[in-house]
Write a structure and sequence with these properties.
Helix content: over 70%
CATH topology: MetI-like fold
Order of helices and strands: HHHHHHHHH
CATH superfamily: MetI-like
Number of strands: 0
Strand content: under 5%
Shape: globular
Number of helices: 9
Radius of gyration: 19 Å
């Protein structure tokens, strides 16, 4: 689930962050303020918003997505996309002048300039995606609200840890926490190794 959420959020957040970071437009300051605010959106608020939208009386209630994995993915996307967008903007805004000068010099179109920017910043953007994944894999509040923590259906590792802790099964909760840390460590180790290999090639 966290992988799906991260992929969707990256497909939304990276192009948006590149556009904001490399383009001057009216209202950009307000867009940045809103993005920075949403980066700190409380998970329970995100979960509540998705709950209201997907509930029977909500605008998307007919889809019957509430208390499903799809609803949990939506909630995570709401949380992760602003983070990836904001971090991408920060990366691109620092390198945009140099990258755009090169792109314009070789006659790239606007769309190709965006792709070129993503390519030039790809190693830093991987770290941005990892930050989003870390946020997703640690999420409890939003996924609990929209998923319901239903056994064998919408219960994930973080909500299982919360449940086991509330039940007083601390040994099992700690074991699940260790598994979660190991998964996160292995993913980060693999990506770091790939980044180091790329830097040596460059």
């Amino acid at each position: 689930m966290s992988f799906s959420s991260t992929i969707i959020s990256s497909l939304l957040g990276i192009p948006l962050g590149v556009f904001i970071g490399s383009t001057e437009f009216r209202g950009k300051a307000w867009v940045l303020r809103i993005t920075n605010t949403l980066m700190g959106l409380p998970p329970v608020v995100a979960g509540l918003i998705v709950l209201l939208i997907l509930s029977r009386s909500g605008p998307l209630g007919k889809l019957k997505l509430l208390y499903t994995v799809t609803a949990m993915v939506i909630a995570q996307v709401v949380l992760i996309t602003p983070i990836i967008t904001g971090l991408t903007n920060n990366i691109v805004s620092l390198r945009a002048p140099q990258i755009q000068e090169t792109a314009v010099g070789v006659g790239l179109s606007r769309s190709k300039q965006m792709l070129y920017t993503i390519y030039e910043c790809r190693m830093q953007l991987i770290s941005t995606v990892l930050a989003g994944f870390g946020r997703a894999i640690a999420e409890v509040g939003a996924v609990s609200i929209v998923g319901g923590n239903v056994q064998y259906k919408t219960r994930v590792m973080t909500t299982a840890i919360m449940l086991q802790t509330n039940m007083g099964h601390f040994e099992f909760a700690i074991a699940l926490g260790i598994v979660l840390l190991v998964i996160s460590f292995l993913i980060n180790a693999v990506v770091q190794r790939l980044q180091e290999g790329k830097l040596r090639d460059d």
